[in-house]
Amino acid sequence: MNRIITYVITLLPYLAVTFQYVLTSLFFGTIFGFVLAAAKLGKNKALKRLAIGYTTVMRCTPSIVFLFLIFYGLPVLFRTTAGINIDGLGTITFVIITFTLFLGASLSEIMRSAYESVDRGQYEAAVSIGLSSIQAFREIILPQAFAVSLPNMGNTILFLLKEGALGYIIGLIDIMGKAYLINGNEMGAHILEVYLALSLIYWTLSIGIERLFKYLEGRFSFEKENKDTITYRRG
Amino acid sequence: MDFDFKFMIDTFFMALKGIPTTLMLTVTAMLIALPAGFFMAVVRRSKTPAASQLIAVYVSYMRGTPLILQIFLLYNLLPTVLNVLFQALHIPINIFNVSNSIYAIVIFSLCETAILEEVFRSALGTVDKGQLEAASTVGLSPFQGYIHIVIPQALVSALPVLCNTTTDLIKMTSLAFNMSVLDMTAIAKIQAAMQLSYIEAYLSIFFLYLILVLVIERIFGLVERRLRIYQKG
């Protein structure tokens, strides 16, 4: 038991790396997902088909296969097409690129369905009282779509946290990679303790994220609006 | 660096031989997890003390930790635990001779059961409680009520999600190489390392997974259309 606690303490600093790729992928994934969702909801047929096709392909691909493709393929692609050498990039960059591409696909679906869940009449009502279409989107549609998308967002972040653990395979030293290294150095002497310590960290994190999103759902929900006007507040 | 197209095609056909393994892992784990997950969902909905809390902790753990970690943990833990258990019970099985596929199936089943428990729990929630009561007033036992009334309806509402969990499971089995099981990914990985042609090898299974998952989705789509007769309204 003491040993497990020692390993938890050894592993904890490496959470910084895990958080780094989770937050960065989430940031770029959200931007990419927004672009894809806009393409899916837009009028341009070609762009729409491209976005849907991309989402389908990403949905069908195991993370590990795509991670390998990015890790081995991207440097070659850059060297042959643009003559740029990106071998020097850290492994974390490849992990971030991989999961940005994954998240773009899944977040675009979440955003699209959230957008479509908001009644079209709301937009029309907003425009009829004199809001511009951008204002209507920002003030009326977006807050509601955001509230609808929260549970799925939570799941996506959990997916990212868990699948990101695969980064150790290409040599990333996050908490998973560090645990793997410890076992290598100790010849697997305390393999169970190390992995138990690691699963405690992941478990705690996951429960924390789940709780956070449950809380956010309650805070941003529009369902209970008859209780006290609107529970959603900005900022 | 030139692209070795022939090697990619060769690997594609070699990895094709891994499809039975991938499908075997998926189908077996699914067949174990479906009843187990359903049973757990029913127990947890019935709020049986101790049992439902235990299931909640199990599901939370399985869903809160990466699959790769569960594989590492259980793959190292299971043989030792089972060995002690079997020796204590005088079961004449040498646990260290058990094939790796069995461990893979056990681990994927454990994970899938947790996922399906949640799916079924929410699916059962979509079927009105009054239906079970109505079934009992016309003389059906609770078991019959579940079989004839509740399950068909819950299944229809769960089917799209079941399709997703099945394709997710296919993707999950790509980690089976960690247990030395020769599935599609493992074959491609070996080929890639032998020829040092990583891109070609992984591209070939990239296409293979794409085809496989799309076929499975199509099958589910057909079943879904067939089962829609049970839908209310």
Write the layout of secondary structure elements.
The complex is a heterodimer of chains A (235) and B (233).
Chain A: H1 2-11, H2 15-41, H3 45-60, H4 63-81, H5 91-117, H6 120-128, H7 133-163, H8 175-185, H9 191-220
Helix pairs in contact in A: 1-9, 2-3, 2-5, 3-5, 4-5, 5-7, 6-7, 7-9, 8-9
Chain B: H1 5-16, H2 19-45, H3 51-64, H4 67-88, H5 100-126, H6 129-137, H7 142-172, H8 184-195, H9 198-227
Helix pairs in contact in B: 1-8, 1-9, 2-3, 2-5, 3-5, 4-5, 5-7, 6-7, 7-9, 8-9
Polypeptide structure, described:
The complex is a heterodimer of chains A (235) and B (233). Chain A is an all-alpha fold. Chain A has 9 helices and no strands. Chain A has one domain: MetI-like fold, CATH 1.10.3720.10. Chain A is 77% helix and 0% strand. Chain B is flat and about 70 Å long. Classes of the chains: A mainly alpha (235), B mainly alpha (233).
Task: Please summarize what this structure is.
By secondary structure, chain A is mainly alpha-helical.
Overall number of structural domains of chain A: 1
The domain count of chain B comes to 1
At the fourth CATH level, what is the homologous superfamily of chain A? MetI-like
User: What proportion of the residues of chain A is helical, as a percent range?
Assistant: over 70%
SSE topology string of chain A: HHHHHHHHH
Q: What structural category arises from helix and sheet content of chain B?
A: mainly alpha
Distance between the termini of chain B: 60 Å
Question: Spans of chain A of 5+ residues with little confidence (pLDDT < 50)?
Answer: 226-235
The fold-level CATH name of chain B is: MetI-like fold
Radius of gyration of chain B: 21 Å
- The assigned structural class of chain A equals mainly alpha
Termini distance of chain A? 43 Å
**Gyration radius of chain A, rounded:** 21 Å
